[in-house]
Amino acid sequence: MVPFGLTESQFVSRYRRELDRVSVSVIETLRSLFKRVINDDVHTAHIEVFLDEYGSAPSIWIYYRGENNKVDHNDESLFAGRSLDLQLHLSALANFDERYFFSLEDGDLGFPGLALAGDCIKSWFAEIWWKAGGWVYPLPTTLAVHDDWGDGNLINLAEAGH
Q1: In a domain, 122, yes or no
Q2: In a domain, 3, yes or no
Q3: Are 141 and 158 in contact (CB under 8 A)?
Q4: Which of 122, 109, 118 is nearest to 52 (CA)?
Q5: Is the dihedral of CA 104, 106, 108, 109 positive or negative?
Q6: Does the predicted TM-score (pTM) go above 0.70?
Q7: Taking a C-beta distance cutoff of 8 angstroms, is the pair 51, 149 a contact?
Q8: How confident is the model at residue 110 (pLDDT cuts 50, 70, 90)?
Q9: pLDDT tens digits, residue range 138-147?
Q10: C-alpha to C-alpha distance for 57 and 92, rounded to whole angstroms
Q11: Which residues contact 109 (CB under 8 A, 6 or more apart)?
Q12: What does DSSP assign to residue 87?
């Protein structure tokens, strides 16, 4: 458990260190994703990082979009409307004391852990995406942190199109 009491810079450093420990396996996971065939009906992809106010491990999902999005839980292909949990094994990030991640009452935001974690994981994931070869992904692809934690900006991971 990472006890409560780190400074903001110590928190970011420790959070990044935990992310760096899984970088090699995440690169392998992304390279496997890049090899999968994408259906012709898909026009864009969007990646969303989900953080948890109670200190659970974040999750990262990719959403494939096109003109006619569908929902099909039996189709394993990458079709327009498909959402896919990237399952990046970020469980070590749940070892941070939950007080880093939730707001206090009466308008006091407490420790800005969600904002710091959002920016940290977003920049780390973009770096890992590119290290895995994602700059040639055949879809325009963006990355964001859900609920705009951190700076709230999108990162363009790939600009290619069909």
Answers
A1: yes
A2: no
A3: yes
A4: 118
A5: positive
A6: yes
A7: yes
A8: confident
A9: 999 999 999 9
A10: 7
A11: 103
A12: -
Identify the burial level of 26 via C-beta atoms within 10 angstroms of its C-beta, where 0-12 means exposed, 13-18 middle and 19 or more buried: buried
- Name residue 139's amino acid: L
Task: Using the predicted structure, report yes or no on whether residue 68 has a pLDDT greater than 50.
Answer: yes
Work out whether strand 59-65 and strand 83-85 pair parallel, antiparallel, or are unpaired.
antiparallel
Residue with tokens 């994408």: 38
Residues in the chain: 162
Give phi and psi for 141, each to the nearest 5: -130, 130
Structure tokens at 23: 């970088």
Sign of the torsion formed by the C-alpha atoms of 79, 27, 149 and 110: positive
**For residue 98, which phi and psi values (nearest 5 degrees)?**
-65, -20
The number of domains in the chain is 1
Q: Which domain holds residue 147?
A: 8-158
